[in-house]
């Protein structure tokens, strides 16, 4: 497929380090035969789910600095696309995100942090593209059948409300909209969604389908109406390749979720390789990182799998990681709407390993080259077939528009491995171009950007505050938050907990469980709403909280909760369940199956009570209003030895919480 320009030649290099000779090849960069597809940009995904949960609780100036590293043009990652979850009250990987409609007659656009994040991104880059996608849905969507396709009109009505709320309440217009993350689609749903968008003033919202594997390609080939409804085929973790059917669709192709790798130097290598090779191998014109920023407890599944890390709002510490600068290699020197060069005349593989991708807007030229080795660029998935990279000299021959340029500005990265130090986004001396030609000696594990653009900046703020563990004494009366937001550091793992007005002047604002039914789930939701906080390494903890429960329901206090994310439903720990009927029990599992104690407790429905749970050494104790309810000595050693603090409700009904206090923790 690739046209190789000129003949392969060998050059001898001076003995540099261990490399005494390296063969060189020549690569044509030529637009005279036309350019390739439109470049649609590099993006980050907030959500899928709750991946930015801790970010919103950061103090300033750190919070604003982090946002600059992500979104400000010419500073850090300078992202072109922000993809967000349309919250569905359902567990979507690191937690739940709230729905704009907990029930059919509910509607609210002040919940969660995605609105805030989109506005902060737009403030920094008004041209950033927005892309929205649902993971789970509230149970009522689909009339409690656990499918959003039972009543597609109802489901489309729900999605349209979100788009309208975005526009009218927040002034946010989506550029792209997806179907149902990594789940099924129906052709009827996609077609009716397109028609509804067109007839409701959302003609410019392009549909991406179907944020999953390749099946949609066959349906696109065989159903012209579907093909017309879908603007972009979006695939997840394609491993840089697409299928034959996919190519035959002639559609715009994206890797609409990719990366998901720990943001160390191997993660940076993964990201550098796929950003180039998703185009070189798969003709994909956008790549979106799951996730945007690792802003959830590091002990949750997929800890640190974001472009950077901000998981300590209580200390203000954060870390700008390699993937930020790898992103900058492309984003700071291109914009959506630029064109890729065709493969074989400006993009392709390097003969001794690695790849190159050229882009232009007709006036400016940028080429990104990477030589990431196999061991240093493996992503979490799919597995990467072996290949080798060797030192090489590459000659690039510029023909066409840029034949007469005299020099190119250079940015360079070399992530360090095995104790070697890292270089990221270093501005090197320009490379001279002679008669449209320049040579570059490339070693393994390097990233180069050469560009006609005079921009490019490695943004830098003063070092953030030192890292600190979650405080072992901590209180929150929930009175300092905007209504409908979420209390700092609590991360909901089932159901949704929002700040609400208690209607009682002594309690003022409280934290309330507000999801109204088990969701149309994306992964395995727990049947009991629960929110975790604290430090997963804590073993001995004492905490208290005021609860106000319905007579027919109750509240849960728990310690040593050992699992979050899609594993939360199966978590173990010590769970103290209190019923509004005045009964209690203690279980060692989240699903409430293994009861170790039960009895009566002085809890009265619709009345506030202070509940305390303490685990110290081998003993667990619970009390209500200072009166001991249970004392469990010699708790078995098979129980988790550590985990989070949690509060919850035994079913999807309302309960209020106030005056949370961690008395001791270790
Ligand atoms: C779902 O419920 C709504 C509201 O009750 C009703 O109008 C609609 O007909 C139901 N849809 C189906 C497919 O049962
Ligand atoms: C690559 O995708 C573009 C559309 O984005 C299409 O026009 C072109 O034919 C594709 N090329 C190949 C080789 O598949
Ligand atoms: C491209 O180059 C032109 C002229 O040199 C400049 O005005 C324009 O801002 C550049 N485009 C980008 C995206 O930097
Ligand atoms: C890659 O990693 C494997 C497993 O750790 C190791 O055996 C192999 O030597 C490494 N290859 C290179 C080229 O470093
Ligand atoms: C560290 O750097 C040295 C010198 O450049 C190189 O030979 C070695 O392979 C590097 N180690 C790793 C693990 O990449
Ligand atoms: C690039 O290398 C080739 C082969 O050694 C040489 O002929 C050519 O002059 C070099 N070009 C530049 C611009 O240095
Ligand atoms: C939990 O505590 C350990 C030990 O003090 C500390 O290393 C870790 O950073 C803490 N994590 C959090 C999330 O506070
Ligand atoms: C309001 O809360 C206080 C303190 O918990 C309680 O004593 C009082 O009875 C509550 N008032 C009502 C009307 O529930
Ligand atoms: C434990 O107590 C809670 C709260 O009263 C109740 O909902 C649950 O059914 C009880 N579990 C068992 C197994 O009795
Ligand atoms: C405790 O559990 C036992 C066994 O399930 C049950 O018979 C008893 O009624 C329960 N006690 C209370 C107070 O709920």
From TrEMBL:
Residues 492-663 form the Glycosyl hydrolase family 59 C-terminal lectin domain. One of its GO terms (biological process) is galactosylceramide catabolic process. GO terms for cellular component: lysosome; membrane. Residues 1-24 form the signal peptide. SUPFAM superfamilies: (Trans)glycosidases (SSF51445). Residues 341-456 form the Glycosyl hydrolase family 59 central domain. The active site is at residues 182, 257. One of its GO terms (molecular function) is galactosylceramidase activity. Residues 39-332 form the Glycosyl hydrolase family 59 catalytic domain. Keywords: Disulfide bond, Glycoprotein, Glycosidase, Hydrolase, Lipid degradation, Lipid metabolism, Signal, Sphingolipid metabolism. Its EC number is 3.2.1.46. InterPro entries: Aldolase_TIM, GH, GH59_C, GH59_cat, Glyco_hydro_59, Glyco_hydro_59_dom. Coiled coil: none annotated. It comes from the Eukaryota. The keyword Protein biosynthesis does not apply. Transmembrane segments: none annotated. The keyword Hydrolase applies. PANTHER family: GALACTOCEREBROSIDASE. Belongs to the glycosyl hydrolase 59 family. This is galactosylceramidase.
